[in-house]
Amino acid sequence: MASAPPFEPPLSRLPDFDPRAIPVLGVDAHLPQVPAQQQTPQALRERFRRPPVWAPEIASEKRFSERALAHASVLLPIVLRDQPMVLLTERTLHLSTHSGQVAFPGGRADPEDASPADTALREAEEEVGLERRFVEVLGALPTYRTGSSFIITPVVALVQPDCVLRPNPYEVAAIFEVPLAFLLNPAHHQRHAVEWEGVRREWFSMPYHDGVCSHFIWGATAGMLRNFYRFMQA
Prior knowledge:
Helix content is 18%, strand content 29%. With 234 residues, it is α+β, with helices and mostly antiparallel strands. The protein has a single domain (28-233), classed as Nucleoside Triphosphate Pyrophosphohydrolase (Alpha-Beta Complex), CATH 3.90.79.10. A hairpin with a 4-residue loop joins strand 12 and strand 13. The chain is globular, with a radius of gyration of 17 Å. The termini are far apart. Residues 1-9 and 94-99 have low confidence and may be disordered.
């Protein structure tokens, strides 16, 4: 029997693959949602100041890229509106990795970056025009290794609502916000799986409709949000 290839193709490149069309295997409505009082700015600061004992649910995806592993950071920005909102982007279609997908602002670490947080802040400013003076970094979640060979550090931060964003049109097709309470409610966490050439691939999705547009959050972004839920619920 021939051995399996060392790298599997990304889900987005499987024949006729559309993540929205894959059946939902289950929804985790039986799990507790994070209480509203734990989502206030002060409660979030305290959570990172005194983190619980916990472990991420998802640490890595099946690797599909032959490129060398590279470190990267993303900013998980919580905008302090009347209800906390998580800022997300939709990537442009021509990008080489994760094109057209919902993502956090972020990217590859540069040698000049002092820390993963520095990478996340620099990339967020380059990508969506978010200036550092509007951002309060709370801390980081454990790294998340993507199938595209990135070791990502999610950096969680509070963002002042009066920030003015200037998205880079080369990288960002759209910017939108999702209520933090929606993302921290596992009743909105859908499980999916597909099998192709004997390999089973599993992932979460968190579809969101803002009243005007529908946004399909899945893949690495949904995986990191799921870990954030576990961190907040621990």
